[in-house]
Amino acid sequence: MDLSRYEVPPDQLRRACAPLLESAAFASTADLERLDTIIGQERATRAIEFGIDIQSYGYHIFAMGPVGAGKMTTVQRFLEQKARTRPTPSDWCYVNNFANPDRPEAIELPPGKATVFRKQMEDLVQRVQESIARAFSGEQYEEHRAQIAREVENRKRQVLEDINAFANAQGFALVPTPSGLMVGVYEGGKVLSQEEYQALPEERRRQLEAAQPAVQAEMERRFRKVRALDEEARTHLQNLDKQVADFAIRHLFEPLKREYESIPDALVFLDGVYRDILDNLALFRSLAQGPAEGAEEPPQRRQSPVDRYRVNMLVDNSQTKGAPVVVESNPTCRALVGRIEYRAEFGTLVTDFSMIKAGALHRANGGYLVIEARKLLQDPFAWECLKRALRDRKVSVHEIAQQYALLSTTSLEPEPIPLDVKVVLTGEPYIYYMLYDLDPEFAKLFKVKADFAEEMPLTENSIMDYARFIATRCADEGLPHFTRDAVAKVAEYGARLVEDQQKLSTRFAFVLDVISEAAYWARRAGHDLVQAEDVQRALDEKRYRSSQPEERVREAILADTLMITTDGLKVGQVNGLSVAFLGDYAYARPTRISCQTMLGAAGVMNIDRESKLSGNIHDKGLLILERYLAAKFAKDRPLSIAASICFEQSYSEVEGDSASAAELYVLLSAVSGVPIKQGIAVTGSVNQYGEIQPIGAVNEKIEGFFDVCNARGLTGEQGVIIPARNVRHLMLREDVVEAVRQGRFHIWAVSTVDEGIGILTGVEAGERDEKGAYPPDSVNGRFLARMEENERLMRRRWPVEAKALNWFQRMLNHVRKPATRADEKKQAEGEKPESE
After folding, report:
1. CA atoms of 237 and 148, how far apart (whole Å)
2. 197 Cβ neighbours under 8 A, 6+ residues apart
3. What's the pLDDT score for residue 835?
4. Residues 6+ apart with CB under 8 A from 177
5. 237-240: long-range contacts (C-beta < 8 A, 24 or more apart)?
6. What does the alpha-carbon distance between residue 56 and residue 71 come to, in Å, rounded to a whole number?
7. Residues 664 and 626: beta-carbon distance below 8 Å
8. Phi then psi for 567, rounded to 5 degrees?
9. What is the CA radius of gyration of the chain?
10. How far is CA 721 from the centre of its chain?
């Protein structure tokens, strides 16, 4: 059989990018200009532009794509460009609410004005303290205060004299005692002692006792006048203090009121400060006097009482040019909407408006907020906090612990701040679709999907974009620049990442790693420019650092612990290829697939499936294989075969259908008796028409088998059969390509099962003739002959059993049909499905 017609030429095993740069006008990336645009993401960038510009409700952005696709970099660059053209948003601050201190008030100020306002209030409070201290320390104030006191004392003395005269006329008198004025008996021009009172005649004592209640009541009525005079004096003194303080501080508030006359909230606050100062003059006078001499300060000092007049600056945009762009790397609920802090005072936790701290939404208000979705969802409350803020269009600072505390503690309810922000979430596609399916509010709030692609077309222009990208990286980080051949090598690595000769990867995070590592090895080698060999060294070293598990598997194969045969011929045995993914590294492991046949018509048994080590996709592949055989060989007769297929030395779940072609080949070999070349490995899936379908990780599978064969010694007869549709995905290592070029290794590409079995056995599969028969020496002819022989033996030896087996096979095929919706409904209701 001529195998050369299926062999893939060496020039198709790897796409060389150097020829595309032959006409490029640069010797190294030092000759190129910086790359200031986003490459390979036209769809995503258009979505981001749309999401940024549209101002309707709910048009926030979810930038989705694989890790390393440059989502965060692209989003930040677009936002920063847009932010420069937008106005700088307002400053925000919180101030004391004198009417209700538990509900601090928010004040919006022009950008950069919050810092000024806070300093002005600090200066105002200081000047108020100084002015009040001066006003109340003058002689005129003291004289005026003394005059009021003298007038009141004179009036009180006159009232007391009237009271005493009235009491004397009734036989009583006022007696001063340490506890106040008392009523005593007045007789003979003097106040009687207790002994003198007892010496009075009994009649006189009865008269005095009878008159005492009326006299006591009248004296109490007149004493109220004395207390009213004290209250009047206190009121006069307070009014005097307020008049003095008003005269001393009113002029200090006027300039601020004129400056902030266009900001009503600021005027309300200034008026509140002014009234509160007049209501608490004693506080300012005590501050002016200072602590008493010799008094010790408590170990935990309280805040200064005048701090309630200060300003808590929440958002300061004095240094912001345009709109803010905030990237929140720790998006917890407190980090998003702010927090309320507490301080310890005498063993108690207290708080006030000055302990309110801003969150990312406050800082991004009027601009843009970028959050990584995966980190956002790690906090149990952050997603709900963000949705609430976007839905209500305001930021409410609240202490999340208060909602779940067993005991209620005193906290604040700050006034919410209006929110005008564009939020951009970045994350993998599965996060987007999970949120879309599970949270109805997600679709209402994040209406713009920016879908980042993993790849872009491999053209001369795209490689030049790669070159400018490398030039920008080298300039930014001070790395040595890359030669033209080194750029081509990096581009080939980009094609390898997406496994496509016509595409380049846009996952620039991985490309950046290679650039940095190649620059490192270039410096180690003393190169002024990064050469192609430095890039190859970086790739080799990167592979070596991660390839220890692969080497352990290869050592086990060479030691014959893992039984893999790479030469000779065997019936019912073929080398399949599986891939293990370990983080950012993938490697292939050759696996022996074996098949045994026996007399009977039980069909094909998958040992892995029977032992529950087979996944759903692998089971599907085997069922397709059986249906293909039935359609090809059993159109007019039962499929009279009995075989078992197994992945040898496999102790974990077998998943995927990329081995279904190998399973079909080994079954054809086992039934037909035609041996398979053990130096050839197989990958590919098969459909019901016998067509070989493409699979993934084709490069790793070829290279894994090549490394095993190379370690044992290449014979020139070894190789790998791959689907023809996978040829465009080949970006093999250069040592593999060189071995193929020298004829020491081979890559065959097939489109059908018949082509593959012909390569594996060296025997034509065979085509049906006009009578529907296969050539007797072909694989298909031998397969059909063996099946017919199996059926004859069954009829001769076990005629009844043969009929029973055929009937059982037909019933088994019927049971294996997928259950209908009616069957599923009956099963759910506990009834027996019709298919049983």
Report:
1. 7
2. 185, 205
3. 47
4. none
5. 237/145, 237/148, 237/149, 240/141, 240/144, 240/145, 240/148
6. 23
7. no
8. -155, 165
9. 47
10. 43
For residue 63, give the nearest of 437, 368, 382, 511 by alpha carbon.
368
Cα–Cα nearest to 114, from 125, 126, 104, 122: 122
Strand partners, 184: 173
Please name the amino acid found at residue 74: T
Q: What pLDDT score was predicted for residue 832? A: 54
* Residue whose entry in the numeric block shows the structure tokens 């974990």: 652
Q: Which residues contact 443 (CB under 8 A, 6 or more apart)?
A: 436
Kind and range of the H or E run holding 746: strand 746-750
Cβ density class 617-637: b for 16+ within 10 Å, e for less: ebbebbbbbbebbbebbeeee
The vertex-163 CA angle with 162 and 164, nearest 5°, equals 90
Distance in Å from the first CA to the final CA of the chain: 48
The alpha carbon dihedral of 771, 776, 778, 779 has a sign of positive
Q: How many angstroms separate the Cα of 538 from the Cα of each of 204, 456, 510, 531?
A: 125, 24, 12, 11
Q: What is the dihedral of CA 749, 754, 758, 760, to 10 degrees?
A: 70
Q: Of the candidates 528, 506, 665, which has an alpha carbon nearest to the alpha carbon of residue 70?
A: 506
CB burial of residue 151 (10 Å; 0-12, 13-18, 19+): middle
* Rounded Cα–Cα distance for residues 124 and 762 (Å): 99
Share of the chain above pLDDT 90, in %: 51
Residue 205 CB partners (closer than 8 Å, separation 6+): 197
* Backbone φ and ψ of 586, nearest 5°: -130, 140
Query: Phi-psi category of 92—alpha, beta or left, where left has phi over 0 and alpha has psi -120 to 50?
Result: beta
The answer to whether the beta carbons of residues 695 and 723 sit under 8 Å apart is yes
With beta carbons less than 8 A apart as the criterion, state whether 186 and 173 touch. yes
pLDDT of residue 752 exceeding 90, the answer is: yes
Residue 55 tokens, joined: 């101002």
Query: Cα–Cα distance between 806 and 640 in angstroms, integer?
Result: 8
3-state secondary structure of 622: helix
The number of beta carbons lying within 10 Å of the beta carbon of residue 673 is 14
pTM: 0.78
The mean pLDDT value for 550-579 works out to 92
Q: What was the pLDDT predicted at 105?
A: 94
Element (H, E) at 52: helix 42-53
Tokens of 294: 């010799």
**Alpha-carbon span 441 to 125, nearest angstrom:** 48
d(CA 488, CA 496): 12
Query: Which tokens sit at 676?
Result: 């398979």
DSSP category for residue 414: P
3-state secondary structure of 389: helix
Mean pLDDT of 785-803: 74
For residues 827 and 557, give the distance between their C-alpha atoms in angstroms, rounded to a whole number.
48
93 contacts: CB under 8 Å, gap ≥ 6: 106, 107, 109, 114, 117, 118, 311, 312, 313, 314, 315
787-to-455, 561, 645 alpha-carbon distances in Å? 49, 35, 17
Of 71, 60, 64, the C-alpha closest to 446 is 60
**Ranges assigned E (strand) in 306-397:** 312-315, 325-328, 339-340, 343-345, 348-350, 356-357, 368-372, 394-395
The per-residue DSSP string of 240-260 comes to: HHHHHHHHHHHHHHHHHHHHT
Look at residue 290 in the predicted model and tell me its pLDDT.
Answer: 56
Q: Residue 121: pLDDT band by 50, 70, 90 thresholds?
A: very high
Biggest alpha carbon distance in the chain? 161
Question: In 10 A of CB 570, how many CB atoms?
Answer: 15
Least confident window among 239-243, 299-303, 349-353, 704-708? 299-303
